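Postdoc handover notes: sequence design on the structure in folder B. Input tokens:
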């Protein structure tokens, strides 16, 4: 803090001028070099020199939305980490899952968390879910230069919208394009396989636990076909991360709860390696 004081020991005017509820915009004016996307690299980054996170899935249900992610990070063709965290609480009613450059994504998520907290302190109220989605879009757009050099960030935002009384999901591209998804979505290298699985297993009116199981099955299917996605590591007791957001707020499911569901899934896969089958006909 002392480095920001003027010769008289006072904070610069940027710190005392009221009005702006965006911490990212404040940082842009006062010290833009601290923003993740403002750094300059000597050239493109080789994929084998940095960690990438995959795969993230999310689905709405009768009371809100659930997000889940595997725990593997890769660097080229090497497993760089087996227990990376890819899902972070954004605030009390939303969460962010990261895919792409793990280090850059985690930095943007931390800035996003501060952005939402700063807004709440300045305005005295929580930013709407649409507002959160727009703020995250702006941050990703600011990282476009880094993305073109190989440090791409592709997050997934999920939250509970109290105005609509429902869970909602937003996906993004590297240019900051924001897209609201209906029902379910996935990002990361295993996303195609996970989304194919959810097409068969997803039910919009399902209770929370059934939706959690569907997402865990989708992550298993993704890891079954994508080498960058990790299966549950039962020997090390490393399980997927799962976050649930409802009208009661955000809850990160514990390892004991996830472990019991994973054990049941693995038991079922012993009998049917390709996982549960969807009915051929929907008689409902």
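Designed sequence:
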């Amino acid at each position: 803090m002392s480095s920001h004081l003027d010769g008289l020991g006072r904070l610069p005017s940027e710190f005392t001028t009221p009005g702006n509820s965006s911490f990212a915009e404040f940082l842009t004016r006062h010290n833009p070099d601290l923003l993740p996307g403002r750094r300059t690299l000597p050239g493109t980054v080789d994929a084998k020199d940095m960690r990438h996170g995959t795969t993230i899935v999310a689905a709405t249900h009768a009371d809100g939305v659930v997000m889940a992610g595997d725990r593997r990070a890769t660097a080229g063709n090497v497993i760089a980490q087996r227990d990376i965290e890819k899902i972070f609480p954004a605030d009390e009613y939303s969460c962010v899952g990261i895919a792409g450059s793990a280090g850059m994504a985690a930095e943007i998520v931390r800035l996003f968390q501060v952005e939402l907290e700063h807004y709440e302190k300045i305005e005295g109220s929580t930013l709407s879910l649409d507002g959160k989605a727009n703020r995250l879009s702006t941050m990703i757009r600011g990282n476009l230069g880094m993305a073109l050099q190989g440090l791409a960030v592709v997050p997934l935002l999920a939250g509970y919208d109290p105005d609509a009384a429902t869970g909602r999901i937003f996906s993004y591209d590297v240019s900051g394009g924001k897209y609201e998804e209906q029902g379910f979505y996935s990002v990361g290298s295993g996303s195609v396989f996970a989304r194919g699985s959810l097409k068969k297993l997803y039910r919009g009116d399902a209770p929370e636990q059934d939706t959690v199981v569907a997402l865990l099955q989708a992550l298993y299917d993704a890891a079954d076909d994508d080498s960058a996605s990790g299966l549950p590591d039962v020997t090390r007791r490393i399980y997927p991360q799962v976050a649930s957001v409802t009208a009661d707020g955000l809850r990160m499911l514990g390892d004991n709860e996830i472990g019991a569901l994973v054990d049941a899934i693995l038991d079922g896969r012993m009998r049917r390696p390709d996982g549960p089958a969807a009915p051929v006909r929907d008689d409902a």
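Context for whoever picks this up: The radius of gyration is 20 Å. Don't rerun without checking with the PI first.
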